Automatic annotation (TrEMBL):
Pfam families: DUF881. This is DUF881 domain-containing protein. InterPro entries: DUF881 (IPR010273). Belongs to the UPF0749 family. Residues 90-131 form a coiled coil. The lineage of its organism: Bacteria, Bacillati, Actinomycetota, Actinomycetes, Bifidobacteriales. Residues 1-37 are annotated as: Disordered. It comes from Bifidobacterium polysaccharolyticum. The chain crosses the membrane at residues 55-76.
């Protein structure tokens, strides 16, 4: 009897539940029997933050490198400007100082002249008549400077005769620029009147100056202070010395109290520039 009751009681008791294994708890959607997709966890933000940090770091390095290159270029520029004057001799520095002083004197003279003209117009009884007189006077001056009118005066005549080597266009252009810097008011190159837009080119037979082909000997006439003009060409280490040493050409400079320049230029027709009314 007891044995029978114990057997019935054992049959009524539920079976023991096996212990759970440690690990991830399976979500309802992970059940393979239902056919549902597994749960995909969100990607951690650590990767995105690391990428943004890397981009900021690379950008900072590039900006720092560009700033360093810019500073280096500026330092080299300043050093080159300083060394360009430090490498000049005492005579060349004196020449540069004289040319700068001449340019300043010309500007001051022009300023004084314009102030006198303005005062003359204001104090004149007939302002229109005085203005017409000054306009005519300025027209003559501008005509000489622009090459529309012939000119004569004190100056120099520079003659460059080639030997075996040909003097290039850049060297002859430097010669003209040296005369301008020394105070030349009117310049002619062989049969060409030199103006602000004059250019020189190298050709097979010689030089070309403003559509005109020129050959040696080259004769450059300049009206201005003879001493300053001659010093600009014949100074030690100047353009005259370079022509002699580099191209084995002869350079002669003659002063004259009456340099005549008859070459003229026609008035240029301006397409875009208009006078201010």
């Amino acid at each position: 009897m007891r044995h029978t009751l114990r057997k019935k009681r054992d049959e009524q008791m539920p079976e023991s539940i096996p212990p759970r294994r440690p690990g991830r708890v399976r979500a309802p959607s992970d059940d393979t029997q239902t056919g549902a997709f597994p749960v995909v966890r969100r990607r951690p933000l650590r990767t995105l933050n690391s990428n943004a940090t890397r981009v900021r770091l690379v950008t900072s390095v590039l900006v720092a490198l560009m700033c360093a290159l810019l500073g280096f270029g500026y330092a080299v520029q300043v050093r080159n400007n300083q060394s360009s004057y430090q490498s000049l001799s005492e005579e060349e520095l004196v020449r540069v100082l004289d040319e700068t002083s001449n340019q300043v004197d010309k500007l001051e003279e022009r300023k004084s002249q314009l102030n006198q003209q303005l005062t003359s117009i204001k104090s004149a009884a007939d302002k229109q008549k005085e203005a017409a007189r000054i306009a005519q006077q300025n027209e003559q001056s501008s005509g000489i400077l622009s090459g529309r009118l012939p000119a004569q005066g004190r100056g120099v005549v520079v003659t460059v005769t080639e030997d075996s080597d040909r003097v290039d266009a850049s060297t002859m252009f430097n010669l003209i620029e040296e005369l301008r810097n020394a105070g030349a008011e009117v310049i002619s190159f062989n049969d060409v009147r030199v103006v602000t837009n004059t250019y020189l080119l190298d050709t097979r037979t010689g030089l070309q100056c403003d559509h005109s082909k020129l050959q040696s000997p080259y004769v450059v006439k300049a009206i201005g202070d003879p001493d300053s003009l001659q010093n600009a060409i014949q100074i030690a280490g100047g353009v005259g010395s370079r022509i002699k040493v580099q191209f084995h050409a002869s350079v002669s400079v003659e002063q004259s109290d009456s340099v005549r320049i008859d070459q003229v230029r026609r008035v240029q027709d301006y397409q875009y520039a208009k006078p201010v009314e």
